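FAQ: What does the model actually see?

It sees only this:
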Amino acid sequence: MTLDLWNEIADAKKINIMKAALKIFAEKGYDGATTRMIANEAGIANGLLFYHYQDKETLFIKLALHLRTVVAKELSVQISAEGDLYSQLRKSISQKLVLCAEYPDVYRFFLIQLRQFPDVFQEQGHEVRSVLSLRHQPNSALHERILLSALDGLVSALIEAFYAGKLTGEELLRQGMEQAEEYIQFFQEQEQ
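And it is asked to produce this:
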C-alpha cells in the first residue's frame, strides 16, 4: 500500500505542521503531546502553529479527519467490488495489517484518536465495514457482526504485539493472515 498522505494539502507550512503533529501524537499520545513539542518538531515558532490551528484539539481533529479520508480512499481502491464477503474480508484485513506495518505512526495515531475522541470519530470508524456492507448482503447480520468482531479482536491483539516489539512487520502480516484465514474458514463452514 502506498499512501500519499499529504498530496491533498496545498500549503507546505500546514503539511510540515501535520507531519510533526503526527510524529509527536504517535509517540507521546494526545495528553503527552504539547503544541510546543509539535512546533519544535516542525521547526517553527509556537505562534505560527496557533496561526494555522486554534489549539491542540483542533490540530488533532483536523489531522485525524485528513488521515482517515486519505486511508479510507486508498482502502476502498484496494478492496475491489469483486468477490464474496469472505474474500473482501481477507483483503480488508490484509490492508489493515499492511497499513500498520508500513505506516506505524498513522496506525498508532488512529488508535489514539479512537481512545481520545470516541464520539467525534464513531461514525467515521467504519469505512471498511461500510464498503463491505454495501457490496454484500450476508445470510445473517448476526453472523457477520460476530465474524467482524472476532477479526477485529484478532487484528487488535496482533497489532498490540507488533507495537510491543514481540512481532516484526513481516511476522505481523504472516500471522495475521494465517489466523484470519482460520477464522474465515470456520465461519464459512458454519454457514453451510
